[in-house]
């Protein structure tokens, strides 16, 4: 869920999805609690850490699981695995129903040998938001599928962005066109060693042709797809 959402926007999404549990972080706990109260159907709010009025996620992870069925039968082709929401340009954000097979297909396609995201030891930059399908598929699902390391960056800040790539030897980065422009034109780039970067994938909108001259000859792939 977009952390920039207002209480009303969060409430709408909770109601539309029929949510009964929430996992968040302490920074957003107060806003989430207000939305949960307005929704009226949330049983528990879990936080990664500690927050007043919320249950720590560590409690859930430490549960012995006795209250859960040992096996849950699902139809992976038809049953919904996740429900990312659209940007809402024509009204309220709409839930995009992705099945288990949808996620498997996405990860399998992007990590196929015909793509550059087919390495066994990739280090992926987790800059794109995971609540968006671009970040979810490229940065998260593919990493889970291949067992890659993901270096999560909460927001784009020029120096810290470049430092993360240098220090963690990031090999693959999925970004938006404005970040490609930064890499192509900012003099700050020359102050950092980005030689580990093997692939830059851009999406969300078109990238200017003049920007596709990447540092150290790094290939850039601009991908476009339907809303999913």
Automatic annotation (TrEMBL):
User: Record's Gene3D superfamilies?
Assistant: 3.40.50.980
Which PANTHER family does the UniProt entry name for this protein? BCDNA.GH02901 (PTHR24096:SF422), LONG-CHAIN-FATTY-ACID--COA LIGASE (PTHR24096)
Pfam families xrefs:
AMP-binding
Q: Which residues form a coiled coil?
A: none
Instruction: Name the source organism.
Output: Desmophyllum pertusum
User: Which part of the chain is the AMP-dependent synthetase/ligase domain?
Assistant: 1-208
State the taxonomy lineage.
Answer: Eukaryota, Metazoa, Cnidaria, Anthozoa, Hexacorallia
Q: A GO molecular function for this record?
A: CoA-ligase activity
* Protein name listed in UniProt: AMP-dependent synthetase/ligase domain-containing protein
């Amino acid at each position: 869920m977009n952390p920039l959402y207002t209480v009303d926007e969060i409430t709408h999404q909770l109601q539309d999805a029929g949510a009964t549990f929430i996992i968040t972080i302490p920074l957003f706990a107060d806003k989430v609690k207000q939305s949960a109260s307005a929704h009226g159907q949330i049983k528990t709010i879990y936080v990664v850490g500690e927050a007043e009025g919320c249950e720590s996620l560590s409690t859930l992870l430490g549960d012995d699981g006795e209250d859960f069925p040992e096996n849950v039968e699902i139809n992976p082709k038809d049953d919904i695995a996740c429900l990312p929401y659209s940007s809402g340009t024509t009204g309220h954000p709409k839930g995009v129903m992705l099945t288990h097979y949808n996620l498997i297909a996405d990860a399998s396609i992007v990590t196929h040998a015909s793509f550059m995201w087919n390495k066994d030891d990739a280090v992926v930059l987790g800059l794109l938001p995971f609540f968006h399908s671009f970040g979810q598929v490229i940065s998260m699902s593919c990493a889970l599928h291949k067992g890659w390391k993901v270096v999560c960056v909460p927001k784009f800040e020029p120096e810290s962005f470049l430092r993360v790539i240098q220090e963690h030897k990031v090999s693959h980065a999925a970004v938006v066109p404005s970040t490609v422009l930064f890499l192509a034109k900012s003099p700050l780039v020359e102050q950092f060693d980005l030689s580990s970067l093997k692939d830059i994938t851009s999406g969300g909108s078109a990238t200017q042709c003049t920007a596709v001259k990447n540092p150290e000859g790094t290939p850039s792939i601009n991908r476009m797809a339907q809303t999913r």
